[in-house]
Amino acid sequence: MSQPSEQNPGAMIFDQTQIGRGLKPLAQHGFVVIENGSITLYDSKQQPIHGGPLSETTAKKVPMTGGKSLSVNIAGEKFNVSPGWGDLSGRFALNRSINSAVKALKYLIDNDGRMPDPA
Questions:
Q1: Where is this region: Disordered (predicted)?
Q2: Maximum CA pair distance of the chain?
């Protein structure tokens, strides 16, 4: 769901992410990559959709999805982002790993890509 990049340990990658704008789907099996203070959305073929600095990015949970999707605003451009849903299309799921991925992505966006200090 979310994992550090092997090539760049400072990057976090969220795979199997549904990405859309309004009702228009842009990627069923997309990726969200957070690294070096920036966020980039990639389509299913790993081509960039949009990106920008985390300092100009906000995220809110979408209530009608039970908090399993985020509305992400990247420098004024809004996207619907659902990490972990790419491989669950058309199936009902109460998946805790999806909740964890959404929480992790929102945390990283809210904190400019910084992970919490281990306690």
A1: 45-65
A2: 41
